[in-house]
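Lab notebook, bench 4. We co-purified these components, and the gel suggests they stay together. Before we commit to crystallization screens, I want a quick structural picture of the whole thing.
Request: model the full complex, all chains together.
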Amino acid sequence: MRREGSPWRGVGAVFLKELSDHLTGARMFVLEWLIVLTAAAAVYVSIQQIKNTSAEDPFLFLRLFTQASEQMPLSFATLLSFLVPLVAIGLGFDLVNSEHSRRTLSRILSQPIYRDALLFGKFLAALAAIGISLVALWLLLIGLGIFTLGLPPSGEEIARALVMLVVTIFYAGVWLALAMLLSTVFRSPATAALAALGLWLFLTILWPIFSPWMAGLVASREITSAEDLLSALSVRQAFARASPSALFGEIVSVVLDPSVRSTQQPMLAALGLALIERGSIPGAPLPFLQSILIVWGQIVGLIAATILLFVADYVVFQRQEVRA
Amino acid sequence: MSDVVIDAQGLTKRYNGAPAVDNVSFTVARGEIFGLLGPNGAGKTTTILMLLGLTEISSGAARVLGHDPVREPLAVKRRVGYLPDSVGFYDYLSARDNLRYTARLIGFSEAEREARIADALQRVDLAEVAGNRVGTYSRGMRQRLGLAEILMKNVAIAILDEPTSGLDPQATLELLEMIRGLKREGVSVLLSSHLLDRVQSVCDRVALFQDGRIALMGTVAELGRQVLGGGFAVEVEAEGQGLAERLAQVPGVTSVETTGPDRVRLLADRDVRPDAAAAVVHAGGRLRRLSVEEPSLEAIYTRYFHDHGAQHAA
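Here is the predicted assembly.
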């Protein structure tokens, strides 16, 4: 059975209305300032740190994103991986159920549009609102870097920083789709918010603690060789990647640091080991596209997770009764 | 074009196997005001949602303006205006902005939009407060804004779900007058209500719902004959001897009941007031009051469910 008319009809109207709601709303204002202020603190400290290092670094500018210190143990990138989900959940947790509680849903759906348009429009508008603030934040950071460090970023640095920006928006998409799914499943916005925040805490804080333990259960072999160690690390990584924050972390660590040649490198470094590939010079920077290739799977993973969650939301919403 | 705008045949909606609407069939003609009446939970709103394609039809078929609401929901929704039960708006937006959003969803061009919105707001008397946030509106104003949305849409059918519930008498009268205005423009109106008396005055035909079925359907007068039997009840208040016997002989009177001192209630199959007056005068009585009760929906409804409720319980 084919439906008559386009499912895209009305997406534009929904998008514009929702975007204007987000941009004029107090909630967005609060969330934006939360991010801007914490990010400013992180960046200020990392700038102080960078100014004090005298070592030569061809990618000094990228350190703005990744530098952590004793005073501020969280780098800008780590902060984003914490705060972006919060913003996405903040905008998404009541997108669908508020239409129910305001009793506007049946009135809107009795207009000549499909339900698809409402869902698409809402998702795109919230993502655009987050995107706008992330772009603004990114530009602020670059500007601040040029001002305080007194050196312009190279083309490759800008390219890498741009990839990081785009990936952050995808990362926001995952959490937004999750929050929207919960806002469709739970009729009460408070329940949806609580469920979303619970999942966020679990995936970003508890999962990194649990997952190595669970990986240990699966691969409980004695480590006797380098292969054993690498395979154990792979299992551990596979478990950790159930959390989008882990995927985001891997992408950021590789894209923003050209010296990183593998996503397992930080783990190995923690064990005091180094990964040396045959025929490569240790510590030499990796070309831009090579870095991207290493984390291509993770980037696709983030997008796939977004699509999966959105499809789940779509299915639930299509089957839902209009009346409360 | 045919004169039937809504044609429902055997509409059935089952939730988890239990029927909420069970084999409901009715038609609405062009320019007619058709009332779906019945207690809360009788299946009126579900029937409406099925006609709009907002909920799936378990079995049966509906044609709205010749379109199937399941397969061609957009074609249906383009020409049908819907005012839901306790309609909601975006409280933080003004009435005008709320209508603008709907107008964009409908797909009006920019110029057309503003003219239509201004006209619709004018007609429901909200033009002066159109810039205020809807959050400040009273219930009656919200209902009127919902009606403005339908007016703006330029529809062939208006479906109103409980349009008068929760309104004060004055607001109810205003709203009913606006509904009559829709009819004058040739718009067919399908309205649901559990408030029988209010609705009686505007409906051309009604369908009484009970437990998901249509128990009775027709004009109010038809239903009156069908259920109340006699149809007309005439109250006579007069002084005199043996009036009850005299009145019983008036042609058309089916029963006489003495309801108080000098007070008699006649049930008749037609309006027997002239003959009754003549009979009283002829018997030398002093006629003080003579009134006829139109068959009221309330009475029909109460009687019907009284009679059939007993069967249900059995």
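The mean pLDDT of chain A is 88. Worth comparing against the SEC data before the next meeting. The CA atoms of residues 146 and 152 of chain A lie 6 Å apart.
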